[in-house]
Each structure stands twice: as C-alpha cells, then as structure tokens.
Design brief:
Elements (H helix, E strand, L loop, with lengths): L1 H31 L5 E12 L3 E12 L2 H21 L7 E13 L12 E15 L5 H11 L3 E8 L4 H26 L2 E13 L4 E4 L19 E14 L1
Length: about 250
C-alpha cells in the first residue's frame, strides 16, 4: 500500500513539472526577444489670448491712538469701498477679504547715554485687504480711482487672467503635438529609419498664474484722473512627451 502511494505521489510531481515547464520556457523565450525600437521626443506649443478678467488687491490702512479708533475708521472706509464696488457691478462672489491685521505702533527713541531705551507705544494700525475680480476690464481704471477716493490707501497689485482658458490651452496642445511629430520625422529621416505608431503621450502643462502688470501705491492725492492700464496678452504653454515605435 505504501509503495502504491509513493508511485502515485511521484506521478503527480511529474505531471506538475510537465505543466510548469512550458510556461517557464515561454517566459524565458519572451525575455530573450529583442526590445522594440522606439524614439522619444518632446514638443512645445503655445497660444495667446487677450485677458478677460483682472484681479486687484486693495487695502485700507488706518492709524489711531487706540485700536478701537483705528478699527472704527478702517471699518467705515472699507464699508464705503465695498458698497461702491457692488454698486458698480462687482458681484459678491468676486469680492474676498485677503487679509486683516491689528498692529501696535512703537516709537524707538535714540539713546543719549549709551543705554537702550524702552520703545514707546504711540498707537495702533489696522489693515483690511480685499481681492476684487473685475470681469469688465473697461471699468478697471474707474474702479481703482473710486476706491482710492473712498479710502483705499495701500495695494495696487493688478493681475490679468482668463476666466475660461480651456479653448486656448487646447490650441497649445495641438501645437505641441504637431511640434513633437515634426521633430520625430526629422530625426528618423536623418537616421534612415521609418517612424511607426505612437506608443505613449504625456503632457506637462503649466496653467499660467495671472500675469502681474501693474503696481502702485494707492494714495488719495493720486486719484485725480482715471488710472491707465493695459491688459496685453496671456500666453499658455504646453509641453508633450511622445514615444513612437520605429518600424523595422
């Protein structure tokens, strides 16, 4: 009985080995195949468009003897600025508080006897900043002027951007792929080989940040005339990496 079981076990091992051997041999055969010849190139594309929106950073800064006084003055000015912006057509969604701070102000007296003197508290400064999205660029200069008149006295960073740049980015993508294809054809023709099918495409696209083009100190005395601003163009860049097979 023991001998019979031993024979069955040996037969089972032989069958298992026979089943595994073809798979192992096939794997070895696949590994021995030459790798497919490929060529990898990159292409750059860009597309430009006039901006249709401006992002403006404005701040009201007030100083007073006490924090309460400085805050009250700041609140009054900022409330008037926000009301004017809304009346001028700026939507609630396009107004966002960008920063708020209350800072003590000190005077640092000079020492006359070589000994350091303690700083003297002379008042408080309250700063309240807002970010405004202006979707009608024809109103931009007037909005800045009116804001300064009503109390904006710091800021002035303006960035031009596009609300929906997807169509422009698609044009840049097409340009990038065409550039990669042209480069691949040039290289293969020079090498005397034939370009095959596309194996892989990847994209490196950096959606540009709004382009800063204007900065000014917002002082009341500067608001005598409409602020001249120019939007120019925004350029969107796309890079693609393409891998082609080389035909034998």
């Amino acid at each position: 009985m023991a001998l019979q079981n031993t024979r069955k076990l040996a037969l089972g091992l032989l069958i298992t080995a026979a089943a595994v051997l073809p798979v192992t041999a096939a794997a070895i055969a696949d590994d021995s195949k030459p790798r497919e010849a490929v060529i990898m190139v990159s292409g750059d594309g860009q597309s430009s468009v006039a901006p249709d929106m401006a992002i403006v950073n404005l701040s009201v800064v007030k100083q007073a003897k006490t924090a309460r006084e400085a805050l009250d003055e700041n609140n009054k000015a900022m409330t008037e600025v926000l009301a004017a912006l809304k009346k001028g057509g700026i939507a609630e969604k396009d107004l966002q508080t960008a920063g708020f701070s209350v800072q003590p102000q000190y005077n640092y007296p000079q020492s006359t006897d070589g000994q350091p003197k303690q700083p003297e508290l002379i008042g408080y400064q309250v700063s309240n900043g807002i970010t405004v999205r202006v979707r009608d660029l024809s109103k931009l200069g007037g909005i800045i002027d009116q804001s300064v008149t009503l109390g904006i006295n710091q800021g002035g960073d303006i960035s031009f951007t596009n609300d929906k740049p997807e169509g422009v980015i698609d044009e840049a993508r097409k340009d990038a792929v065409a550039s990669a294809l042209k480069k691949a054809k040039t290289l293969t023709e020079a090498a005397g080989v034939k370009l095959g099918r596309i194996l892989e495409i990847s994209e490196n696209s950096a959606r540009p940040m709004p382009q800063p083009v204007y900065r000014a100190a917002m002082m009341k005395e500067a608001a005598d005339a409409s602020v001249p601003v120019q939007g120019g163009e925004n350029t969107y860049n796309v890079t693609v990496n393409v891998t082609f097979a080389l035909e034998q």
